[in-house]
Amino acid sequence: MLPALTDLAQFRDLLGKAPGPDTAARSEAEARNGQLTKPPGALGRLEDLAIWYAGWRGDARPEIKAPQVIVFAGNHGVTAQGVSAFPAEVTVQMVMNFRHGGAAINQLARAAGARMDVHALELDRPTQDFTQGPAMSGAELLSALQTGWSAVDPQADLLVVGEMGIGNTTPAAAIAHALFGGTAADWTGRGTGVNDAGLANKTRVVAEGVSLHRSRDGLEVLRCLGGRELAAMAGAIAAARQLRIPVILDGFICTAAAATLAAISVDALDHTVAGHQSSEGAHRVLLEKLGKEALLSLGLRLGEGSGAALAINILKSAVACHSGMATFAEAGVSDG
């Protein structure tokens, strides 16, 4: 069982002291990989994924039986600045769609054999407009982190976190800009499809927010420029690390939330892989900043955890090959 989060200093401390992978299990997995009935390296990146997964699960011959997908939803005061092509009411409507099984993420989670949970975070009370002040108070940030922290099933063996929140590519862009510098235009994209004038306005909003809240501290950036669903994703990713549950990161918004953890502790995302590279232009750069190479690049820009959920079956396949294949000795095949 994980401890309840009592304050932000405790969260920061837990992140800094988070457990690493089981080095013995990883070494055993590497040894097993070298004995399987295939030429060395013939399964390419699947081999690396399986060994990585084995290390985090502490099992040289693991299986993936209980993946969990969690979608967090939040609303943003910054939408008052006209940064989205859709109204905030769509967040509530999509939460109902998730709960009724009608969204893309429901189908992808089902196809991957994953349990899916939905957490709506105070949709009737948007965060503050971050061009006017901090998006959240310390207490509000802690509450959102705790929602994510406690949403992770300790019995899960793989985690995907996704989001729904009209306007949330704007805080994601602001977080990336605050953490990694450059210009607001470097990080700001069209999101749900704003036109040229909308993109210029959105870029202005990101620049104003980052100028107002000058910090590169991960938690402070998340508090001032983020949103409740982004904080919940960060809390869930951090909780998974404590439980040694590997995580598949989703698109730009999820990756921005995760980046706030990496700003606190350099190895905070070692238990994560990037599920896909979205069509949001800055996502590729953000992944590069975090040293992550996406498993898929299919032009997705939906959010919801959809790209990461699609990648579950890739990781399942990698682990199935590693754990299920015979060794040369077992198969009676000459290894040369």
From TrEMBL:
Superkingdom field:
Bacteria
Matching entries from Gene3D superfamilies are given as: 1.10.1610.10, 3.40.50.10210
Q: What is this protein called?
A: Nicotinate-nucleotide--dimethylbenzimidazole phosphoribosyltransferase
Q: Which GO terms describe its biological process?
A: cobalamin biosynthetic process
Q: What residues form the catalytic site here? A: E304
InterPro entries with a match to the protein in the record: Nict_dMeBzImd_PRibTrfase, Nict_dMeBzImd_PRibTrfase_bact, Nict_dMeBzImd_PRibTrfase_N, Nict_dMeBzImd_PRibTrfase_sf
- CDD domains found in the cross-reference section: DMB-PRT_CobT (cd02439)
Annotated region Disordered: where? 16-40
Checking PANTHER family in the record gives: NICOTINATE-NUCLEOTIDE--DIMETHYLBENZIMIDAZOLE PHOSPHORIBOSYLTRANSFERASE
Presence of the UniProt keyword Aminoacyl-tRNA synthetase in the record = no
Could you tell me one molecular function GO term of this UniProt entry? nicotinate-nucleotide-dimethylbenzimidazole phosphoribosyltransferase activity
